Amino acid sequence: MDESVATLRGVLDTLTAVPAAGLDPERVDQIRLLEEIKSAAAAAQARVTAQFVASQRAAQTAARVPAERAQRGIAAQVGLARRCSPYHAQRYVGWATILTRELPATFAALAAGRITEWRAMIVARETAWLSREHRAAVDAELAPQLESLGDRRVEAAAKQAAYRLDPRGYVGRTSAAAGDRRVTLRPAPDAMCRLTAFLPVAQGVACYATLARHADLSTAAGDGRSRGQIMADTLVERVTGQAAAGDVPVEIQLVMTDQALLSAGPGAEEPALLSGYGPIPAEIARDLISGPAPAVPRWIRRLYTTPGAGRLTALESGRRLFTPGQRRFVALRDQTCRTPWCDAPIRHTDHVVSSDRAGPTHVDNAQGLCAACNYAKEAPGWTAHPTPEGTVVTRTPTGHQYRSRAPDLPRAPGRPRIVTGDRWSPAVNIVRWHHAA
User: Fold this and answer.
1) Mean pLDDT of 333-346
2) Which of 2, 131, 143, 418 is deepest in the core (most CB within 10 A)?
3) DSSP assignment of 250-319
């Protein structure tokens, strides 16, 4: 084992064995010291990350790998090591490089334990667009103040300093940010979700003001709903074009056991899986299927799993591209990107062993990946293969291996999972509900 790795393992073992303090004042001292240790460790990690990135870039430049392709693979390796998504890894790589090379005073404060990792990264993030000279000026100005500032004040101070140094560049950056406008959907507690729009400020303020004005008028007219409920319902109605939020045409796919579907047996309350969202209580899943609108057509479609292993039955294809049915199958099976710690929505149905290496177009050789992970996997030195148990083993250019498997499906207690043909049977149900307009 390398001496540096052995040293770090010794530090980890020492921290694990830290004795408990006997009195509360000593416990507070421990909390503060451990926080400083976390900051020092973050500085060391950022420094090692910058060194790793520089080494990988040099090696891949020598091998004449296109810069964009090489960068994806480098950040993905950092993400796997940090146990975070490729998106966060890409941001971290950029910020760590800036922090260690071009913000020496901020980096020194982090290494000394005087500021948190996030506050140091805020400075790196808010100065990333500046020239090297302007970044150094912001670093010298802010570093002495950072220990006494909270997250928001660090962000505000960094933005103000950057704007003073390069007002034209700041305005240009703001204009370019409009190109990143988007709408995202994230799960929330209690079977709710967060629909978020990232918009230019004028458009966002106008949308909110319109919804608020409508809610105020409705309340004045005697509407019994709360202001927030009216705004939410109005948003749904205006986006979908329906007269009422409850009339929105939707198609929802659920994975649930027959016992949960019928509310019978020991598995009646086994949570269901809502595709694109995650687990939801069985009662809510049953409400989606047999809700209050009797005119809405609903139907049940079922997929089946292999005995014992609980994997969905495979579908074959002799074609180079996966069929729509296979892509739907993989999305239902994998739920989110199969790369460990990513959890991003599935965008690509990927051949685990690529087709140019004779990988079959078969769901046992398929995995759902986000776009970033699929592109990273194509970087030089990356390999992957599926196992008979349904696990995908990915090997990075440094020789590290990572294993991933599809999430467990709902299963009634004590009931084996069976394979059938095209006929329905009480195995795992895929409930597809279509709410017609």
Assistant:
1) 88
2) 143
3) EEEEEEEEHHHHHT-STTTTPPEEETTTEEE-HHHHHHHHS-S-TTS-EEEEEE-B-TTT-PBPP-B--S
